[in-house]
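Quick one:
INPUT:
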């Protein structure tokens, strides 16, 4: 009788131990899951933060290629609505407004450019100016809408006298100068497999390119189109150094300097 009671007590005690161990295991699993949940809800997220000003209508591809952002870890409670975590998200988009350094990049700041109306891309102090494009001078197939270019013009300038009038019998002097810097490309012709150009910037008279030109530059640009030869120079994505507006002639090119001699500038009226 005593042995049977003792055995029952041992069995009950062993069962209690098993149940206690199982309960402890369940508690540990619960606590681990709870801690994981807390870490997930309060952990940090890697987002993209602008490192420079991203102008309105800048293509997302340029933002990525120009490395206009850095990756930064932020707490979830500091996460901006629509924060972009993958650079590939920017491809095919354009900046809706200017984005400033330190701002998180969000889907609200970018939009798909599904309009062909170039007027919506102009600032109040800009005008859209079309340029007939020579395949060599226009970088057809390499310049895209949303790129930024410099406009360089070359003129044959007659020497002038003190009264500003051309000298009789004088020979023209070719002079070159950058007349517009950092112009936004609104439309551009695209190259085709046949070597020509496709629609996107073509006019009835051949391929053309449309630029957003500042109001102070419009008259100079129009004059250069009529009286000079125009070349387009593609700028790298993001901020970059300007070429400068020095006037260059063949003598400056041969001497490896950045400006024509003062005498040339004087007799052509370029220094007035």
């Amino acid at each position: 009788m005593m042995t049977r009671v003792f055995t029952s007590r041992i069995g009950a005690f062993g069962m209690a131990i098993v149940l206690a161990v199982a309960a402890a295991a369940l508690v540990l699993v619960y606590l681990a899951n709870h801690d994981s949940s807390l870490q997930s809800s309060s952990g940090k997220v890697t987002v993209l933060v602008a490192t420079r000003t991203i102008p309105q209508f800048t293509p997302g591809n340029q933002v990525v290629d120009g490395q206009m952002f850095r990756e930064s870890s932020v707490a979830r409670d500091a996460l901006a609505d629509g924060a972009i975590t993958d650079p590939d998200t920017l491809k095919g988009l354009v900046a809706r407004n200017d984005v400033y350094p330190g701002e998180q990049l969000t889907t609200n700041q970018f939009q798909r450019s599904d309009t062909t109306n170039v007027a919506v891309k102009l600032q109040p102090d800009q005008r859209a100016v079309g340029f007939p494009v020579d395949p060599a001078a226009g970088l057809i197939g390499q310049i895209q809408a949303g790129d930024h270019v410099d406009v360089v013009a070359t003129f044959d300038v007659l020497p002038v006298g003190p009264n500003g009038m051309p000298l009789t019998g004088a020979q023209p002097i070719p002079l070159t100068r950058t007349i517009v810097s950092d112009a936004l490309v609104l439309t551009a012709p695209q190259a085709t497999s046949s070597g020509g150009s496709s629609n996107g910037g073509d006019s009835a008279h051949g391929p053309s390119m449309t630029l957003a030109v500042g109001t102070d530059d419009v008259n100079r640009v129009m004059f250069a189109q009529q009286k000079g030869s125009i070349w387009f120079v593609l700028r790298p994505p993001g901020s970059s150094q300007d070429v400068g507006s020095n006037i260059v002639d063949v003598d400056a090119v041969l001497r490896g300097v950045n400006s024509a001699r003062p005498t040339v500038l004087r007799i052509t009226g370029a220094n007035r």
